[in-house]
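Hey, quick one: can you model this chain's 3D structure?
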Amino acid sequence: MVRAASTFLTKSAMPVLKPADHPTIKDPKVGVLLLNLGTPDSPDYWPMRRYLSQFLSDRRVIETNPAIWQLILQGIILNVRPQKSGANYRKIWDNAAGDSPLRVISRRQAEKLQARLGDAVVVAFGMRYGNPSTESTLRALLAAGCTRILVCPLYPQYSATTTATANDAVFDVLKRLRWQPALRTLPPYYATPEYIAALSDSIAAGVAALPFKPDVVLTSYHGMPVEYLLKGDPYYCDCLATTRLVRERLGWSEDYLKVTFQSRFGPDEWLKPYTADTIEELGRQKRKVALLAPAFSVDCIETLEELAITGREQYVHAGGNHDDYAYIPCLNDSDGGMAMLEAVVRRELAGWL
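Sure thing. Here's the predicted structure for all 353 residues.
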């Protein structure tokens, strides 16, 4: 059978025949959407209240019956917590940039990843709560011509309270779109060789740069109600695996590199041991301590204030020496952190680039 030669022409070889009044269509591009938890627009009362209301109304974060929880949240918590949280944010606010450290560093991450990936990819960053919102950033990628998008929740260890709700926000936007892009989501990377290497190198360099030798190093992960673990959330196991792999790479013992959990909220039992209790005990024992937060890809209120400032105060109050306590920063936009991020992103972009 003989077929017309035009049958075998590729799409790119075929002439493009469009009506004269056809709207302009951008060349298709690949997008990378970096997502983090979020930040208020300022430490003032109303921006803090809006941010906390959005965050604490998320059913993935607070699984209490919403009818009961909203009475507590709107009637009690949001009348008190914005002032307290705002005061804590003021301690760490980047006044030179006029912004929160989380947003400043997230912007740098996106810019550096863009430079590493080149013009074939459009990189943007967004927040699950606050600005730039997930929806506005996703729509900006679509407006830029992105027909394939990799969604990257920057949480190495998976949890429904972080990774899942970040993906939910993206899916909620897609449900309202007539023309949806192809989508991929970044898997948890808590045990990938690139992440373990970058984290281990950061810890080793951080400890080596201290003016003292720590008696113990704490890997402090954000906490979670034990109930969530019992319902099947793998976060606790992911955290233990990360620290175990770092120990193995550095050749450190379990007594030297320990796991703790911070940021407990409410009366329920959370994952243990609690970071605050451990810090106080080390202070009473006058043991020198360094700590870091592997679950955070970017330094934020939970690291810069809760660990670096309040944690030191708790340590000193318990009897420790002020200069025997140190916080090691997150990977942020460091060379090691960006090389790791590029590697895990490129792996998930395979076939698209």
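One thing worth noting: DSSP finds eleven helices and eight strands in the chain.
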